[in-house]
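Saturday, quiet lab. Running sequence design on the structure tokens for the scaffold JK sent over.
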């Protein structure tokens, strides 16, 4: 986006030879609200927010979300990921997981089903449900004014059934034995279950060009800051190896892959991948199915798996998990706050999903209109504190130059502790990852400030301490 220029007309009153004369001078002043380029340094301390525009407000519009962007800055958010903003296909539109809209007999009942955001009808247009392109531009500008970057949710593996390519470029799509375009299939030829979308065939190089051009449009013409790419691993790495360098040639961008294969984060492709393994393990620990030893093993596994580069997005929930697997409270119960704190303190970048900051305890509808609560409860003040810690403590750097991670002995099977350190900054995280009271020790010495409660604790090696069920601390040494 080019800097805006404001033409300021200065009227200067001058007096010459007892005669009053008005002189007009035109001065050009640049007033740029261009955000600084996104860098690896920015990502080290970043928090990402997944914005579900449809469900974020009763209006379900860009405009309603834009009003709240300054509030997200209070939570330490540095990147907003917008769920797909494109028109949704009318053909084969889903009403529920099992039914298509066309299966609904009552016309009025049929109207309430809006379909899946991921059945895209046109990659270059705006879903009218959310507003206009100007409304989108206002959202982007407001985010940039608040030093927040915006990435778009991109769906490269498939399109909706009335996308223009269906008729103009049927050769872009996967065909069955009868030559018919198919929905996405598993390796054994069985349907994945996404019958509201048509599968793209990346053996066609012309498709590569068309897809790159559509992605480039949003970077070059609209000034967005990157992409979260849906099911990125279902698209050949060959495509990403061509697409991402072309996009980066336009501007500095941030790329998030919905996948957990390190291959996609190598060779300057995606910076961040999904921490699915961590997510599922935290769910299991909250349910008492796994324990601290499992988490230790997992951290060792991650260090080996990702030693070639890339970092992970840590999350308790997202649009899929909330709607289909259950709310954070349903899955994690009293462990919710401890698990949230872990996602901020472990190496990586924490995710906040729409409504999570307002204690959302409702499975949002996926194919029709719903809305999140807007009353601050337990999570907002906790996220505000955790966000400040993540933003301002170098030890919690989580991207390409993360703070070190060192497991600390606690002499307890229930208490998990580790140290993060970078330069002269060090933090200690301690949590009782069980529903029972726990006694533990730490081999640390001195006075430590607990950053959430701001209480100072005197620590000594071997000193016996206690934590209640799911209680946790974030400690910084003061002397």
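Result came back. Writing it out in full:
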């Amino acid at each position: 986006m080019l800097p805006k220029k404001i033409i300021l007309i200065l009227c200067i009153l001058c007096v010459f030879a007892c005669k009053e004369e008005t002189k007009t001078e035109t001065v050009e002043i640049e007033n740029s609200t261009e955000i600084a380029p996104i860098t690896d340094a920015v990502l080290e301390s970043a928090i990402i927010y997944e914005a579900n525009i449809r469900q974020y407000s009763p209006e379900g519009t860009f405009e309603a979300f834009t009003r709240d962007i300054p509030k997200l800055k209070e939570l330490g958010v540095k990147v907003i990921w917008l769920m797909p903003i494109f028109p949704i296909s009318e053909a084969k539109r889903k009403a529920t997981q099992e039914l298509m809209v066309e299966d609904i007999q009552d016309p009025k009942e049929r109207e309430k089903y809006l379909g899946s955001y991921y059945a895209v009808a046109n990659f270059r247009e705006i879903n009218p449900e959310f507003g206009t392109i100007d409304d989108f531009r206002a959202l982007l500008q407001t985010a940039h004014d608040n030093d927040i970057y915006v990435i778009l949710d991109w769906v490269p593996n498939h399109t909706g059934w009335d996308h223009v390519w269906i008729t103009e470029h049927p050769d872009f799509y996967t065909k069955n034995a009868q030559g018919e375009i198919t929905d996405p299939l598993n390796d054994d030829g069985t349907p994945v279950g996404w019958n509201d979308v048509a599968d793209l065939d990346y053996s066609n190089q012309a498709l590569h060009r068309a897809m790159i051009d559509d992605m480039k449009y949003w970077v070059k013409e609209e000034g967005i800051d990157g992409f979260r790419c849906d099911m990125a691993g279902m698209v050949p790495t060959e495509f990403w190896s061509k697409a991402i360098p072309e996009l980066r040639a336009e501007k500095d961008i941030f790329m998030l892959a919905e996948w957990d294969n390190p291959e996609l984060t190598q060779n300057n492709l995606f910076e961040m991948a999904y921490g699915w393994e961590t997510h599922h393990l935290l769910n299991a620990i909250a349910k008492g199915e796994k324990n601290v030893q499992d988490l230790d093993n997992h951290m060792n596994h991650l260090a080996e798996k990702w030693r070639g580069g890339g970092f992970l997005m840590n999350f308790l929930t997202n649009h899929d998990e909330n709607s289909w697997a259950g709310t954070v409270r349903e899955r994690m119960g009293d462990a919710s706050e401890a698990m949230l704190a872990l996602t901020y303190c472990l190496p990586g970048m924490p995710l906040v999903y729409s409504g999570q900051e307002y204690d959302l305890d409702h499975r949002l509808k996926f194919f029709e209109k719903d809305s999140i609560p807007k009353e601050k409860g337990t999570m907002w003040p906790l996220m505000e504190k955790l966000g400040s810690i993540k933003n301002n403590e170098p030890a919690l750097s989580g991207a390409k130059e993360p703070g070190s991670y060192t497991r600390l002995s606690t002499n307890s099977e229930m208490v998990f502790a580790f140290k993060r350190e970078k330069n002269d900054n060090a933090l200690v995280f301690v949590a009782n990852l069980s529903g029972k009271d726990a006694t533990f020790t730490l081999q640390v010495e001195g006075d430590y400030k607990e950053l959430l409660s701001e209480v100072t604790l005197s620590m000594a090696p071997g000193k016996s301490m206690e934590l209640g069920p799911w209680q946790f601390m974030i400690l910084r040494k003061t002397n």
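Notes for JK: Confidence is low (pLDDT under 50) at residues 1-32. The first strand starts at residue 5 and ends at 16. Ask whether to fix the surface positions before the next round.
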